[in-house]
């Protein structure tokens, strides 16, 4: 190939097929990030962008944090990789113990994956196998919820409830059904924090137990607070009610805490916030501050123990990833936990949440704003869709915010905010002043 063409091939934008991106639109007018520090990204045109979304809900300690950087550098020079199967390295065990200590109750066993999607697949497989090991092999159904997001692999996509993420991919995993979502309850509009109406939507699980017979259901998986579909909160008492119905029918409850984990709601996990203990918790993202891919499943002792039977020389769970408990990921996670601990970040959102809530609700009454939702350091700003062009209005805000030095995320016509937990009040002010100006001037 001639060198000019080869240069174009390696330096151009064509080769990279970007995930969850409008590729053609992006490549017409690329938005490139070339650096990051603390609360800010640096763009290729030399501007600072306030990170209003912690990367993709993952950089809870902000960017380029020294503890994490050093941990990775040291790990790379000591042990780059160790086989994940039938071999171990000390940091896997140290990390699992520290994670178990963070989580209340019986959620003491940790299985490592490389993403939230893989954590979900792992938890679903564990649930079905657990019942089989206990002589209830007929419990194979999985229940998710409308508008749920559990990653993009087949299990998570099947229990997930975002139509665009499902419709192109055939018949998905069989034996899956969905609870009704908790979005759009008129009485909850503009509620501050946890909304008071709608806990009875949990009773929808009774409907599915009637339909399928509860004894055929292995597990229910929900996000305690649904992030991807537009910051949808659990009504007061809803998660408690779901727990009760699961117990009544012998169904495992899985909380997908890929977004809510690691301080996002002002407590280490949503489990602490709501005082409801599920049988398993999936996590990822902020586990390593987003720096190296890693996910984890927190499993109650009883589930783990059910697998520990049969001959001791046999593999107990035929499942795992080449990079489960990868040394670099473990080092990054340990550096991350150190940072969270030293800076009190797992509870900092609770200290800021009143200020945050006030800032969020200061947008009430602006044109096109039809709902505002908040919890911990999360906000959902729902806009009236542009007639005939859903998603356009929110995406316009995204583009204008980017120009004005603020990175936000949009899903449908909802703006989602979820900044690093190190954010200062003055930066919260900047974010909401910027959004106010943009929204006021929308078409
Ligand atoms: N479960 C939940 C609850 C999530 O939020 C996943 C699983 C999948 O994790 P991985 O690591 O496989 O991406 C997620 C991820 C958005 C957005 O725009 C949300 C996610 C990922 C990317 C973008 O809201 N959530
Ligand atoms: N595909 C092939 C051919 C493999 O050999 C493996 C792992 O050995 C995988 C997929 C799964 O890869 P991973 O363990 O990174 O998920």
- Give the class-level CATH name of the largest domain: Alpha Beta
CATH topology of the largest domain, anyone?
A: Aspartate Aminotransferase, domain 2
What is the count of β-strands?
Answer: 15
Bound molecules: 3-[O-phosphonopyridoxyl]--amino-benzoic acid, pyridoxal-5'-phosphate
Summarize the main sheet: 7 strands, mixed
What radius of gyration results from the CA coordinates?
A: 22 Å
What distance lies between the first and last C-alpha atoms, to the nearest angstrom?
Answer: 49 Å
CATH H-level homologous superfamily name of the largest domain: Type I PLP-dependent aspartate aminotransferase-like (Major domain)
Question: How many domains is the backbone divided into?
Answer: 2
* Major β-sheet strand ordering: 4-10-9-8-7-5-6
| Unreliable stretches covering 5 or more consecutive residues | none
Assigned CATH architecture of the largest domain: 3-Layer(aba) Sandwich
- Helical/strand content category: alpha/beta
What's the overall average pLDDT, rounded? 97
Structure annotation, total helices: 16
Question: Which bin fits the share of residues in helices?
Answer: 25-40%
């Amino acid at each position: 190939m001639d060198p000019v063409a080869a240069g174009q091939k390696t330096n151009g934008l064509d080769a990279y097929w970007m995930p969850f991106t409008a590729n053609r639109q992006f490549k017409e007018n690329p938005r490139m990030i070339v650096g990051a520090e603390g609360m800010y990204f640096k763009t290729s045109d030399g501007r600072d962008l306030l990170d209003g979304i912690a990367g993709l809900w993952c950089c809870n300690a902000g960017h380029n944090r020294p503890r994490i950087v050093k941990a990775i550098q040291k790990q790379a020079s000591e042990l780059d990789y160790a086989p994940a199967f039938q071999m171990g390295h000390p940091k896997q065990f140290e990390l699992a113990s520290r994670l178990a200590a963070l989580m209340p109750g019986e959620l003491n066993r940790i299985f490592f994956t490389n993403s939230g999607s893989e954590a979900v697949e792992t938890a679903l497989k564990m649930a079905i196998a657990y019942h089989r090991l206990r002589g209830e092999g007929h419990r194979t159904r999985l229940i998710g919820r409308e508008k749920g997001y559990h990653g993009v692999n087949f299990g998570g996509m099947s229990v997930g409830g975002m139509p665009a993420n499902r419709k192109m991919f055939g018949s998905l995993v069989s034996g899956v059904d969905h609870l009704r979502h908790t979005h759009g309850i008129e009485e909850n509009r503009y509620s501050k924090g946890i909304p008071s109406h709608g806990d009875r939507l949990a009773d929808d699980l009774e409907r599915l137990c009637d339909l399928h017979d509860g004894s055929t259901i292995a597990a229910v998986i929900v996000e305690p607070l649904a992030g991807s579909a537009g910051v949808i909160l659990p009504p007061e008492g809803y998660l408690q009610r779901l727990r009760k119905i699961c117990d009544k029918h012998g169904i495992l409850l899985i909380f997908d805490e890929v977004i809510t984990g690691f301080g996002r709601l002002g407590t280490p996990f949503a489990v602490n916030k709501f005082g409801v203990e599920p049988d398993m918790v999936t996590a990822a993202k902020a586990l390593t501050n987003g720096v190296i891919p890693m996910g984890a499943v927190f499993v109650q002792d009883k589930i783990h123990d059910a697998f520990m039977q049969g001959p001791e020389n046999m593999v107990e769970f035929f499942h795992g990833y080449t990079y489960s408990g990868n040394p670099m990921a473990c080092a990054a996670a340990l550096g991350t936990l150190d940072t969270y601990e030293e800076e009190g970040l797992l509870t900092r959102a609770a200290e800021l949440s009143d200020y945050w809530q006030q800032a969020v609700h200061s947008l009430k009454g602006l044109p096109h704003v039809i709902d505002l939702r908040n919890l911990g350091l999360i906000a959902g700003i729902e806009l009236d869709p542009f007639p005939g062009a859903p998603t356009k209005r929110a995406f316009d805000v995204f583009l204008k915010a980017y120009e004005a030095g603020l990175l936000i995320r949009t899903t449908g016509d909802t703006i989602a905010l979820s900044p690093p937990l190190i954010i200062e009040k003055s930066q919260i002010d900047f974010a909401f002043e910027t959004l106010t100006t943009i929204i006021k001037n929308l078409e």
